[in-house]
Amino acid sequence: MEIRKIYTMVEEIYSDQGQKVDTPLRKVAVVAVVKNPYAGMYQEDLSYLIEESKEIGRKISVMAVEAMGDYPVESYGKGALVGLAGEQEHGVAMLTNIFGEELRDAVGGGVAWIPSMKKKGAAGAMIDVPLAHKDALYVRSHLDGMTLTLSDAPLDDEIAIISVIANGGRPNSRLGGLLKEDIEGKDGLR
Fold it and tell me: In the beta sheet, which residues pair with residue 11?
């Protein structure tokens, strides 16, 4: 699958509402902008997109982990922004469990469901990619996200495929729920 470009975005948060965080919260997004072979047409069988997502998922997920530096990965998410000549379903096809397993492998495992966002949009559109703890979806502090704007992507005949990871939960999280210290990591929920 033809890749036009790859974006890497790093956000690092040192304080929120005047409250310093002990360890900076680092969020990393890596985006591969690829040619959509089905732009402008209806294609019943989308297995090509699913198959191609494996290599792309591996590439951008490994790049995201590298951009985390020495920080451990605690949460993850995925997204797709499909150009206007495509279908939302094209982005969905590229984010199945084939892609998800590559993301899990890159971060060193994870049993929780990987949250995702898929939508159509023009170049410059924003997308909010959700994040959740990689081992337990019920860790409320890690229900977060990263907002991305791609200045020149996707073009009408492209798909932007996104891996997002973070080293922690929201700064100043204080709404209770399952704590990361109490994760069992058995069912992906607790």
Answer: 27
Q: How many CB atoms lie within 10 A of CB 179?
A: 13
Domain of residue 95, residue span: 3-182
186: pLDDT strictly greater than 90 = no
The helix (H) or strand (E) run that includes residue 59 is helix 47-67
Number of independent structural domains in the chain: 1
Please report how the helices 97-106 and 47-67 are oriented relative to each other, as an axis angle in degrees rounded to 10: 20
CA distance 155 to 143: 30
Q: Which residues pair with residue 7 across a beta bridge?
A: 31
Query: What CATH number is associated with residue 48?
Result: 3.30.1330.110
User: Does 160 fall in a domain?
Assistant: yes
Residue 58 has pLDDT above 90, yes or no: yes
CA dihedral (83, 89, 91, 97) in degrees, to 10, reads 180
The answer to whether residue 106 sits within a structural domain is yes
Whether cis (ω within 30° of 0) applies to the bond prior to 72 is no
3 state SS of 66: helix
Is 117 within the bounds of a domain?
yes
- 18: burial class by Cβ within 10 Å (0-12, 13-18, 19+)? exposed
Report the C-alpha gap between 77 and 137 in whole angstroms: 12
Instruction: Give the model's pLDDT for residue 146.
Output: 98
DSSP letter at 150? -
Handedness of CA 178, 184, 189, 190 (dihedral sign): negative
